[in-house]
Amino acid sequence: TQGNTEEKTRILCEKLQDIRVKFVRLVHRLGQSADNGIAAQVLYRFALAEQLKGGKMRNSTSGYDKACAVAMEEEASSRDEELDFCCTVLLLGKSGVGKSATVNSIFGKPMASTSAFSSGTNKVEVIDGTMKGIRMRVIDTPGLSASMADRRYNERVVASIKRCIRRNPPDIVLYVDRLDSQSKDAALMRYIGDRFGPAIWFNAIIVLTHGASSPPDGPDGFPLRYDSYVGQRTRMFQQTVRSAVGDTRLLNPVTLIENHPACRTNRAGERVLPNGMVWRPELLLLCFSARILAEANTYLKLPESMPLTRLCERRSGSPMPVLLASMLQARSEVQQPDEEEYGEVDPDEDEDGEAEFDQLPPFRRLLQDELDALDEDNRQSYFEELALREKLFKRKLWKTQCRRWREMKNRGVEDGEDEQQQHRDMAPGISPDFALPTSFSSDDPSHRYRYVDDASWNVRPVLDSRWDHENGFNSANLDRSFHLAKNIPVSVSGQIVMDKKEYHVTFDGSAAIKHGPNRVSTGGLDIQTVGRDVCYSLWGGTTFKNHECNKTLAGMGVTMVGENAVVGVRLEDKVVIGKRAKILMSGATSLTRGDKAYGAIMEATVVGPDYPVDRTNCTLGLSVMNWTAKDIAYGINLHSQIHLGGTAMVVRGNANNRGTGQISIKVNSTDRIQLALLGLLPVIRSL
Fold first, then answer.
1. Domains of the chain, with CATH numbers?
2. In the list 200, 235, 496, 663, which could disulfide-bond 196, CB 3.0-4.6 Å?
3. At what angle do helices 351-358 and 376-410 cross, to 10 degrees?
4. For residue range 314-369, what is the model confidence (pLDDT) as tens digits?
5. Distance between CA atoms of residues 52 and 67, nearest Å
6. pLDDT tens digits for 624-640?
């Protein structure tokens, strides 16, 4: 008897090992790795099921390693052969949501008829196809109606579907709906459960088409963030299914897809959603995982099948791109606010500008009646003279402030410490009330938004122009800059934003230690929320002043998101050319669990002749990033700020090799009111 038991255990192990090898080959052909969240969960369930069924049947680690080795050998020898595998998928949903278009996207070619103006499927169709040697059978069905008036139509469709699935039992059910549809359709989901049995929802995936659609406007009148919008729709569909089935434990996976031909693609030609996810391999991996788990359960014969709904648990994305972008970001040296503004300016460089303003003859501003009486040439001369005097006055005021700051600094640290002690000894007081925007409500809740005005810490609510008088302020800022010691400046800032469902936290803390006139060490801690996770970044570096016009920085950082940790190294060099131009070059690399990512950025900045009195400047940047083995992303960024008299214009633009980009132009003018007519262009275009 013991020999028969051992033989059965050995045969069971071999069958499970074959299924494990098959699954690893499926994952490889989809272009994924075994470290993928879904694949890792399936392989873990294999090991767990073996232990539950056979106790010490096999070492799970050695079984996994052997399966990977065998799978890679078989793929190398028979890459083009078809696998002994077939997955049957049943599509259900309303009419016009994109079921037939999803079939075409899954196979990568037209397999089902589609129409933009009518239902493309009039009868149940079984579509067989092969992708990368993987056979799939998709059952495309006519759309069901959510209206009770079409009950007879739904009954005919359900009867034809039942006849088809008797001959072709589905391994997985895809319930298809639209991401941008606001209907819940709980009655239709309940109807599907009544006709096919509630068990149909325990092995179903909710597929939302139009995944690249723009989020709608939120309660404040501005578009929602994409991840928040997707999260709301995901929770809504999952709750609707739970209500229709009557089981609060049910948590169906929700995946987004985009079938439009204009959808953004990567280099492999796979369509990419706005959040960067390549949706086709993700959807196919979910379907194949359900088929593999069902096949394994036929041998294990566990009392309860391992449900697919557990595969929808949220997976934390890799923090590698987050750290790489953070490492490439140019950080300014930690200084006091006055030092940041006046520290790099020599007030004695341009004394002629101050003398020129003092030597100007008296000037009287004209009244509006006197201005209207001037002809065009005299009016132009008047405005030119006014602009010149304003520029010279700003330059004189700037130099005076710079000279005053230098004198305060040369007085020594003792005076500064006494002044800081005086600030600390000042008693906090209640700040004045906010000038709240007008409201239709008769209530005046301004007393709710007072705050303590402390000289040491600056903590206050954020007044937003989109303020809602019922919800009030939902964010607050904190910042402080001070000297911990003589040569250790510290800067702390943070913001917290909370609403009824989500919260976002941003914290930046940094400090510097000056080792002399030519070397400064800087370090800090950054905290921010990434979805539902919290990202911690600890960074540090040392800046060396090689020459009056050259600085070099070397540093490293560590980022943690959930259980993932990434280590990065950064090198930066800044070259100043004259008084109006500088070039910044930065490169970084990050490493996590054997994966590497590289990035580089180069920026060139040119400022105006009157900078910083006149904030005219232009920055052009080029960036290259590579955090996968096959894909490289590069882009160009432009930021320009131009001041012409009473008109200020800010231009921002970016583009990348993925075929996306944007450009924004903001104009603020006090003497060219006619520019407001440009606001009519979007209205005219819409009409």
1. 1-81+277-304 (no CATH), 86-263 (3.40.50.300), 319-336+449-579 (2.40.160), 608-686 (no CATH)
2. 200
3. 130
4. 344 455 565 666 666 666 666 554 454 444 545 555 555 556 667 777 777 788 88
5. 20
6. 888 655 567 888 999 99
